[in-house]
Amino acid sequence: MSSSGHLVLAQEYLGVQAPGIILEVALHLATALAILIYFRRRLVDIFRGAAGEPGRGGRFLALIVVASIPAAAVGLLLEDQVAAIFESPRLVGAALIFTAAVLFLSAVIRRGRFRVADLGFAGAIAIGFAQALAITPGVSRSGMTIVAGLLVGLAGAEAATFSFLLSVPAIGGAALLEARKIESFTGNWPALAAAFVVAFLAGLAAIYVVLATVRGRRFTWFGAYCAAVGIAALLI
């Protein structure tokens, strides 16, 4: 549903004055931590494979690296242009409507049966380009990558798992880019810590909900929500 888009709308319509870029960095890191904890066993397999143990997930790691390249390139080349969108709730609303359209597309995709282990590098790159679209606030990163995964033939749960693990380098890279702009923080540390904890718990809950929804083939529910919020952002 685009966390970055919701941050823009929340700050605009709730009158929240964020304490600089540090809030976004804290929320990104909390989300990444939730993913790392939920998928910790899969990640152990991946790094064992990278260390050369036979039968492990080294190829999975290679797919993650390849799929991360498009978003990294777009983020570095268009950083200033993307930052400008964070100032426009109407553009975020339009992006949410685009996200809704893509999510509705998932209803007509013939579900694949492939596991990530069967995914080719061409498919990984396609998912990577879908992730690059989500540099824009309001375009859901997980929505784009899961639907792209379905299009290249992954089973629903496998597409969601690959999407979440692919987000770790994306979120980490975004946090590093934003962290460069942090000069000092003299704000409310307890409030920042509370935001981190809430984002972490919400991130864990979101993983459970998304996986259950994808398995149940009810992914269009997210599309209906994004459409409603996007239209509201354009009209208000």
Walk me through the structure:
- The chain has one domain.
- Helices cover 74% and strands 0% of the residues.
- Helix 9 runs antiparallel to helix 10.
- The longest helix is centred in the last third of the chain and has 27 residues.
- The two termini are 19 Å apart.
- The mean pLDDT is 81.
- Count of DSSP-assigned helices: 11
Mean model confidence by pLDDT:
81
Query: How many angstroms separate the termini?
Result: 19 Å
In terms of structural class, how would the helical and strand content be classed? mainly alpha
Q: Profile the largest sheet.
A: none
Radius of gyration, in angstroms, nearest whole number: 18 Å
How do the helices and strands follow one another from N- to C-terminus? HHHHHHHHHHH
What is the share of helical residues? over 70%
Number of strands: 0
Beta-strand percent range = under 5%
> What's the number of domains?
1
